[in-house]
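Same chain as my last thread, 110 residues:
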Amino acid sequence: NVTACLADQGSILNLYRRLIGLRRTYPELCFGRFATVYADPDLLAFERSHGDVRWLIVLNFAHEQRQFHLPPGSPSALVVLSTCLDRENEHVRVALPLRESEGLILKLLP
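reply #2:
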């Protein structure tokens, strides 16, 4: 029930609340420029940006871990949200492991 989901920090309800909160806080996630980013099979990656603010969203559709490499020339990134709700503030410089069926929202650093 809702009470149990609210108490569970890893629940799908709390994930959706965090996602909605990000969209409300950062308009570039809704209205910014959209560009696909090359990724290996089973991964979907795209960038949302507005002005100097850039976000990278990476989704792993595989049922096993995959590795995503930041595009050449990209700055480092900071994990803002994982669908597993346990990787916040992880710093990424070049490569990023994604667990099975995991999605990540990263803020690209200048």
